[in-house]
Design a protein that fits this description.
elongated; 370 residues; Leucine-rich Repeat Variant; single chain; mainly alpha
Length: 370
């Protein structure tokens, strides 16, 4: 009979009536024949739900897969319970199953994302909500994103902290998939998070939301937190909207050197030549990192009017600024830079000399290249 079930013999389904013997379910799951249970249909559901508590993780995972394919909403509470635990394969399978069930799972997932006592369950719920794409989930996902205290506790178990970080990470990713501008303020805050997992996810979500996020990101350039201002610069640079240029130019006058550096980089990516004068002025910034970023940005913009200022940058006290200035002058291709680059061949640092040599080669000064 097991063979006939596995082969999809529909004639057997009536034999089970309203239920299917537990031993058949166990045998099919053990032999990785969960699809046979799907063919049997709804009589399999109650016993599959029971198997979500099996000691064998492979059986639990197979049960999740079968329940997802069956799409029976009665399995939703048990699948949300299966999102818990430290074995990630089973929670992932439960998440996939809830997505397969579809919109019927959304209310329970919204509740789980914000109020389930298990960080692992909240993580899985956030991921599933992102995949389902229901805008009703946005407030819950924003709330989940803001709940970052658990992994900041010094005495928390490392796996517990990791679960909390994954909640924020998955909430960010889900908000990015949903693409609603109302999530932008919370994502900007998360982009300044101390966690190396949360920051990139929030940043990517902002970029994914795209143009609707630009006005809020521009406003964020005035935020009192330098971390928020810096992340706003990064996102605006990636989004490529020239409407951000005036605000970024103004940001170059700010107090934080890291924010000024990020603003230079964003202006370079945006490619608007109206930023050239401000970037030339930034070559005189007190911080070498900002000056280096200004050189790089001027190279991206490619405006020959920057050449005299870049020639002056070859005398910068920081060797890395001098190196980037050499590279940019070679890229711009203005022969007026040749005498200064020849002088740079005498620089005390080998990386500056090598950059000058390559720049001169690009400018056609073959003798120096040899």
């Amino acid at each position: 009979m097991l063979h006939r079930i596995a082969q999809g013999d529909d004639g057997l389904s009536p034999l089970f009536g309203q239920g299917i013997p537990l031993r058949f379910v166990e045998a099919l799951l053990a032999h990785e024949l969960a699809d046979a249970l799907v063919r049997i249909g709804s009589p399999s559901v109650p016993v599959l739900i029971q198997r979500l508590k099996d000691e064998d993780s492979d059986v639990r995972k197979a049960a999740c897969s079968a329940l997802g394919k069956l799409g029976d909403p009665s399995a939703i509470p048990a699948l949300i319970e299966a999102l818990k635990g430290r074995d990630r394969d089973v929670p992932r399978a439960a998440c996939d199953a809830l997505v397969q069930i579809g919109s019927a799972a959304v209310p329970a997932l919204i509740k789980a994302a914000t109020s389930n006592p298990s960080p692992s369950a909240r993580c899985g719920a956030c991921e599933a909500l992102g995949k389902l794409g229901d805008p009703a989930a946005i407030p819950a996902l924003i709330k989940a994103l803001k709940d970052r205290g658990g992994y900041l506790l010094k005495d928390s178990d490392s796996l517990y902290r990791d679960a909390y970080m994954r909640v924020c990470e998955k909430a960010s990713e889900a908000l990015g998939e949903l693409g609603d501008p109302s999530a932008v303020p919370a994502l900007i805050k998360a982009a300044g998070d101390p966690s190396d997992r949360v920051r990139p996810a929030a940043y990517s979500a902002l970029v994914r939301i795209g143009k609707p996020a630009v006005p809020v990101l521009i406003d964020a350039l005035k935020d009192r937190s330098r971390y928020v201002r810096r992340r706003a610069c990064f996102a605006l640079g990636e989004l490529g909207d020239p409407s951000a240029v005036p605000a970024l130019i103004q940001t170059l006058k700010g107090r934080s050197k890291r924010v000024r550096k990020a603003a230079c980089e964003a202006l370079g990516k945006l490619g608007d030549l109206s930023a050239v004068p401000a970037l030339i002025q930034a070559l005189k910034d007190e911080d070498s990192g900002v000056r280096k970023a200004a050189c790089w940005a001027l190279g991206k913009l490619g405006d020959p009017s920057a050449v005299p200022a870049l020639i002056q940058a070859l005398k910068d006290e920081d060797s890395w600024v001098r190196m980037v200035a050499c590279e940019v002058l070679g890229k711009l291709g203005d022969p007026s830079a040749v005498p200064a680059l020849i002088q740079a061949l005498k620089d005390e640092h080998s990386w500056v000399r090598e950059a000058a040599r390559k720049a001169l080669k690009r400018l056609g000064w073959q003798e120096a290249a040899g």
